[in-house]
Structure formats: structure tokens, C-alpha cells
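Record Protein-L-isoaspartate O-methyltransferase, 211 aa.
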Amino acid sequence: MDKDELIAKLKRMGYLKTPAVVSAFQRVPRADFVPEEFKDRAYEDEPLPIGEEQTISQPLTVAFMLELLVPKAGQTILDVGAGSGWQAALLADIVGQAAKKKGKVFTIERIPLLVKMARKNLASYIKKGIVEILEGDGSAGDKKHAPFDGIIAAATAGVLPPAWKEQIKPGGVIVAPVGQSIVKLTKRKDGTFIREDHPGFSFVPLISEEK
Ligand code: SAM
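=>
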């Protein structure tokens, strides 16, 4: 499969819908984020190894999560689990489209070698000031740059980290795996949450330093 065939397949299956998300999939080549030895499989709908026992997520899962998050131009998003940097680049492509207010993606990764990989893969976005990479435990969120319009995670926790619920703006959305379900939480003005669960996905664990 090539990029256009993958996008067409995800659209046909109903996973890719919103024009901004579709354009991001078109503009940000997954092949640029996949290690050399897997480049010929970059547009297969499957997770692929990126080293350190981690993976670049399956395109279908990324499409589904971005469609739930509904990122918009000019927003500030926290991306937990930078890995290869592909999802952060897709987000940067979307939030970076605003003419007036500059959007920003803060992406956190705990494994130093992957931080290095993400930094290299995201260099053009970092240079433009749309992406900042942070090294550390994303389960604590990012107090310094909070509050966020959206928080998205690529690794699964047993329970959603409380810090994320504190660091999301009213009206903001958290999309994250809990167990093997994708959960969407929308924060109401009164601080409570509307929750949607979408079971049947598979994720690497969120490794938290908190005991
Ligand atoms: N979004 C990534 C991409 O586009 O390549 C997917 C990366 S992979 C599925 C999940 C990542 O989450 C791994 O790189 C892993 O090291 C990272 N991770 C796991 N626990 C973490 C934590 N507590 N804080 C930050 N990153 C974490």
C-alpha cells in the first residue's frame, strides 16, 4: 500500500473523516518516522518497531484517536508518548494552520533514545516553534505549559492519571487508552467529565514513576 491507498482505506472504513485530519495524514508522511528497515511497510495499517521495545502506532488507531480529539488550528495540545514523533507531527500540522494565534504541541517521552529520535524527526516543527519535546514521565502531565485544549496519550494506564484531568481546560478533551479501550473525556465547565469508552484496541503500557 502507498500513502494515498492507506488514506483511502481509512476513509472507506470510516476512521478518517475530518478534512483537517485527512490533510495532516496527506502532508505528514509516516515513512519519514519509520526506521530505514521498515520503510517499505510504512503505509501498511500496522504498528512497526521503532527500537527500545516500542512501536509507531497503527494508522487506524491514530486516525481514530485524532478524530475523537478534534484538534483545531491555534490550540495547545499535550501528546504523551512521543515515540517516533509521527502523532506529534500530525497534531502540529493541524494546530499550526492558524494565521493569528500560533498553536503548539508539547510532546513527552520517557526513553532518552526515543527523545533523540523524535527530536530529529520533528526538527522542522521545532524550528518553527510549533513543537516542543520534553523528556520525562508524561503521567504527571506538564504543569508548566498547562492548561491544554487537548491531551492525547499513546500508552495505556490502568487508571487515567489525575494530573491530566487537572491540566485540561473546561471544554477540552482527553483521549487516552485505559486498559485496552480508548477513552474520551470532555471537561464540563463545572469540572466534571463526560466519558465515552471505545473498547478493542491494543497499546504499550504507560510507565509511570509514581507508585
Ligand atoms: N505517538 C508515538 C508515535 O507516533 O510514534 C507512539 C509511540 S508508542 C505507541 C508509546 C510511547 O509512549 C513509547 O515511546 C513509550 O516509551 C512512551 N511512554 C510510555 N510511558 C510513558 C510515560 N510515562 N511518559 C512518557 N512517555 C511514555
